[in-house]
Design brief:
single chain, 1413 residues, five-stranded mixed beta sheet, 47 helices
Amino acid sequence: MAFPQTPGHALPGAFLNTPAVASRFNAQTDPVRRVLFAQQPAPSAAQGQGQGQPTANPQNGLDPIGTFASRLDGAQPQPGQPAAPPQPPLARAAGFINNVLARDDHYPELDSYCRQISSDYDIAEFNSAWAPFQQAHHFPIPQAVFEQYDRAQVNTAMGLFAEINHAWVTIDNCLYLWDYTHPNPELIGYEDNPHSINAVKLVTPKTGVFNSVIKHILVVATSNEIVLLGIAVNQAPTGANAIELYGTKMALPWKGATRVLAGSATGRIFFTSQNDSDIHELYYQQEEKWFSSRVGKINHSGPGWGAVVPNPVSLWGKSGTEHIVDIVIDDSRNLLYSLSDRSTVRTYHMEAPDKLTKVIEKTKNDFLRDIAHALSIVSPLLNERMEIVSISPISATEDNKIHLMALTDTGCRLFMSATSASSYMMSVSSRAPQSMQLQSIKFPPPTEANPRRSRADPFNGLNEPISIQSRTLETSRRGIRFPPGYFLDFVRKSDRPEVDVLFMSAPDSGRIKNASRTQAPRFYEQANWVELNSKAEDIGLVTKPFAATNQPLGFGNELAVQFDNPDGSEFAILTNNGVHILRRRRLIDIFASVIRTTAGDEGLKMEVNRFQSAYGRVETITAALAVACRQGDSGQFGVGRSAIDQATLDRAKQVFINFGGSPMLPEQDGQPATVEQVRPSSRHAAITLYLSRVIRSLWKSKVVKVGANAAGALAVNSIIPQTKLREVQDSVIALRSFLNDNRSFIQGLSGASDLRQAASKQEELALQGEHQAMHAVEVLMTDISEGISFVMTLFEERVTDIFARLDEPSQQGLKDLTYERLFSQAPGKQLAKVLVKAIVNRNIENGSNVETVADALRRKCGSFCSADDVVIFKAQEQLKKASDPSLNPNVSRTLLHESLKHFQKVAGGLTQANLESAIQQYVELRYYAGAIQLCLQVADARDRGKSALYWVNDGKPANDPRGRSFEQRKLCYDLVHRVLLDLDTASSREPEVIDNKPTLIATKRAEAYDVVSTSADEVFHVDLYDWYIQQGWTERLLAIESPHVTSFLRRLATQDVAHAELLCRFYTMRSMYFQAAKVQSDLAKSEFTLSIKDRLTLLSKAKTNASVMTAGVSRQEQQLLNHDVTELLDVANIQDDLLERLRADDRIPPERQAEIQDALDGRIQPLSDLFNLYADQAGYYDLCLIIYHVADFRNPTTIAQTWTSLIQQTHDEVMEQHAIYAAERLRTGVEGEGPPPLPYETLIAQIEGICHRSSKDSFIFPVPSLMPEVCRYALENSQDGRVGANVNWPVDLFVALDVSYDLLVRVLESMFETQNVPFRSPSGRARVVEWICHAVGLWVRDLGRHGRPDARLEPWVGELVGECDEWVQSKGGRMVNNEGGLEIGQLGMSVREVRRAVEGLVVQSLGRSVGFF
């Protein structure tokens, strides 16, 4: 009975009131809920330069028109989204291809659909159109074998070595091999063995043990020993394999009855005995070693010392009679599986070099326990009476989880997965598994021939019943599984026990790929029965193991490789009546047979609908297109492929045209529709899908492989065989021919005629989008066909020689060149042009005519050799002729002119490599003017819109696309520089004039520089002048009289100091001093990295230049500039002084020093910052006074306070220095270089310096307030005779500073009469009297020195001296101790002496003086 699957619960979100959480589905969107607004798709491969992740869309039943096509074009905009910019046709078509290939590579993994109980089969009759397998050949057993067989006495056995197309038979002690594909094969015998042969196995040898010609090892197990024979396989011109046997002198003595042999990919050989379940390994090596011979045995199941026993004699009896019936090896995981006669499966982990560890043992009871957990009811097929008859490994490349398939005698397939405790960690792929679990059960097909019964499931769609009681595969004698799931089961029926019936099945990859996303993936299989009419002896895979990809994802996609591998997978089955070759039929083979055998249009429509419901519309239309292009099998035994009748072709064309759908324009939600938003039809998707699968093996493959041949010389070979290239090219040409022949019937190809049939604007837009998509694919097909022709031409022209001619970048480009890049990307096209040029040059050197070679290339691959290329080749040919030294110079020059004209015609299409080559040849022929002309014309052709000039004028902004235009021009200008360098070098070696006539080189130099100077290319002049500066040819630049030079230097002056200084030189050389001063002033104020001293130098030069009259500049402008420069120079001087003072100031921490250095040793700072941030905070009062002067600050109180602070600070600093000096002298007892100056001396220097720097500014140098302060300091700090100073030094100081005697005496008079502290005390008044006496005396002497008869003093002077004399003569004056000055007596005498001198000069007045007020 059939037991249906347990129905699934209703999915939340299927109805309006039960919203689902998207995360439950492990996706970002709910797969059930309706989507109102489509999400933006991932960018296509053409946009993202790589394969995007395709979104699985099931295509269950009839697809919405264009749905699959829209998914092929990942760049299709969605409703409400702005349209993406249109792509070039080639890039768009490449995006289609990449998207399709990405979808094919994301075919579900085996684990995703082989994880449930299943009995889904679609069984067809063996000779029906829907049969998944068919018999391709039948090869009888040669008569010579039967003749040897008749002589058998003991035992015989037969087998296959399908990988080398040979079969074998053992007759007693003899082994015979023959090529079963040959009609009259020759028997190759091994008859030297005297013992009966028990088993034979073909294995891979270990690396380095045998000669390189030996590719296989034949292991022959006899009753007395195991012998190793070498096999060399040579392929004959007919394609047949001829083998030779070689003796290796390697034999292992072994008297056990060898039952099973197995070999790993690394050359390890395992075998078992018929009497036990031990696993033995036969090890072999090239030479004997100290503790091991060339051949030996290791028992991996027995005790450790068993390996050293020479002959395995059973000393202890084994429990029971269990023995091994099969050994299989999974080289991808380094696992060995063994099956015993008790249905026990053991798993061993292989570790190099000779270790084998048992990691899992799973008995029949373990299998039954797992089965009981998986099934809700008991199946009669899986009980304690069932036996496991075969095991087949599943490699890690095919699936990560499923490891093994076990077949029961009832025909059930058990898929097992093995895991380890660390399987969830990261880098543990090489760890040995520790447990094995049942993953899935595949039951035999139901008894009915083709059960299509189903019941509706409201949530999961159609759900077919599962048959768990069918005995259709009972009794399965032997079964084997090949990737990606080809299953062959030899069934022995009870009514015919002497023959085997073969059951063959394969995954229905089309239905699996098209499975609905709303239900769990189903394990669909196609199957059919094959009558062998004999007992099967052996089975083997003739073709290479199937692998669509090298990873589990996409591995089993048969549809993806059905055009890339037209022969599919073939299996050889050896029976006693011959070798049967069975072939897996492709989907297109089945489709061709179906439409051939279907009667009438209605029958055809029904079959097409059946295909669409199973595989989707696009796959169906793709199959029809392939058949229409003569792909597909005839479906008949003995008839070759592509033998398709015209009726079948017509029906396939009818299906492609009538069932291909129409393009669609999605709803725009009010937005205007564009052509880029059109979803192409399924017909377009089918063309893209077919084309992508035809070129699948080429698209991502590299073109060449560079290596060395046997002699060690360079060898460049094609990675794809040329036969494969021709096959692909023929398929593409057939597709193009089909589309061209039926252009008027295929919507989207007929162009304007389609648009006339449009019924609305939307339909017209849809047809335009369809036409653009079709056109893009047609352009790609053309490039593919021509690209393949180009590759084949490349190898016909001795590609090794061409590779050697390329420069290093081109060689690397050829190494990395893929067919995708060659067919669809600009870099690949450019490299192809380089290769075309190399081909032409090679033929020119060999004496071929350039036009003949170029025309041949244009016929084969026109897109790789255009009309411009032909012109270039002609120009190169003329260049080559001009280089002939035997030619007349006039003829040579004519040829050079002609070549230049040809190059100028194609200046816009001239590649950089071609340009450089031409320029190099022109230089070698001393055609300098022509070389420069060509460079300038190519530069102009590359930038006709003068984008580079605008970019330069805008200051060369970063990330501006116009910069690329400048870079293109720069490549040409660099070549001009090289020409000029070579010209200068050549002209320096020869004289310019001989007999008052210019030499040839001088004429060529004049011609070249005339081309340079008369060029109207402003960008070229800018670049040329920049190059002059880089070369250090500033004098040459400054000597040029051109308006471009001035603008060039002005532009660069704002960017670089050196250029600004060069501009100054340019102006001064032309007596433009005002402009030079302005540049220097601007440079001093600039943001450039200049020290403050450099800025001072620039300002000094600017002040000098600004003081010189310049023609054309008004005096007002000159004075204004001079004033600005002077003020800036004063500020710069203050900043420089501040920097030097702060550097030497030990109060400032090191980290602050760096900040100060950065701030002050650079751009000139504002005065307010210099005062507030530095001078005032640091207490540099002298600089504060200078800042007051420069800033025109006139607050007398602040200025007076600053002077007071400066005087006190100066005194304190000097006294500190004296203290340090005294302490050091006391410590060392040695006089140093001398004591520091006295405080008053330092103060005098400070005052004099400030006075001079402030230009004796009366506000900064206020004598009425400053002199009393200096006098006070001298009096209070004893800066007089007591320290060895001149007591009158304050008076002398101000006299030296050119203060008038009148002002000086008036200030002293004020001090005497106001009697402020400290001048109130007797000693203070005495000191003031002494200063007045000294000052008036100096005044009198000054008047006498000039000798003027009119020299007179005001009466107030006499009155002041008289008051001083009266005070000295008074009682208070006579009692004063004038310490540090004159004694009071001497002071009185001095006063009286001055009084007498004054009286002679005083002019009598009516009133008394009131001082200077």
